[in-house]
Amino acid sequence: MADENKQLLIVTGMSGAGKTVVAHALEDMGYFVVDNLPPTLLGSFWDLINNSNDFHKVAVVIDLRVKTFYTDLLDEVNSLEDNGNVQATILFLDASDDVLVARYKETRRLPPLANNGKGRLLDGIQEERHILTPIRNRSNYIIDTSNLSTKELKQKLINTFSDRKRQPFSIEVMSFGFKYGMPIDADIVMDVRFLPNPFYIPELRPFTGLDKRVFDYVMNKKETQVFYKKLLDLLETAIPGYIKEGKEKLTIAIGCTGGQHRSVSIAQQLARDLSKKYPVDITHREVSRYIRK
């Protein structure tokens, strides 16, 4: 009997329509993905999945690379469903003939039915389209990728198949010290080592930017105020663009020499101002080095 907790998604469609992109995106969404499975093995494969507790969301990519068996696909799907093993979902990827021709020319590859390079590209594409018509008509979802960017195609998959959907946009503001290395996961890095340094003020040296005395010293300097206003204007201009491009989390790293005074102060103020519009987390990477036990 079918395990209602297990999902089978069959990905098929025109060669060159984006199945490789879809396979990678589904893996990122938690699917166990098998590429280029002959349709005649679908039943045996699903028996293995059904007898395992390790796989719950499974996607199988099937296309005309296995053209000898492709005509069996509908029969195999019907057999699975008739036996009550699973209710399969079929995703068909399509694109216009002219887009497919352009993609093949760009990659210098040939469609599966291009007669080993002796036939015309368009002839092979149109023959493939004819063969795939029955499975296209049976599909639960059809996505035309002709005018979709890779990012747009991935987002469409998330909207359709992901349990988590799209995460809300958030920002992480991080302070760090250059002498301990730059953070490799930062999207934006700002160097504030040019600002007046509390390190050279004996009564401030032992403390961090979390201390009001250090914070006020850094933020009340005229050069800091001029710089900070421009920085905040820049970020408020750029952040909507990151959101539009599909960014889910933006990491802004503020660095000074040791990650103790200036970077911490700027990061504190930046997190405070950005949190008026966006969810913000703040991390002070080096502060624990300077806090007395």
Automatic annotation (TrEMBL):
Pfam families on file: PapZ_C, RapZ-like_N
MF terms (GO), sorted A to Z: ATP binding; GTP binding
Keyword ATP-binding tagged: yes
Positions of the RapZ-like N-terminal domain: 7-162
Binding site for GTP: 63-66
Database matches in InterPro entries: P-loop_NTPase, RapZ-like, RapZ-like_N, RapZ_C
Domain spans labelled RapZ C-terminal: 170-287
Record keywords, A-Z: ATP-binding, GTP-binding, Nucleotide-binding
Transmembrane stretches, start-end: none
Record: residues binding ATP: 13-20
Listed NCBIfam families: PRK05416.1
Protein name (Swiss-Prot/TrEMBL): Uncharacterized protein
Annotated source species: Lactobacillus ultunensis DSM 16047
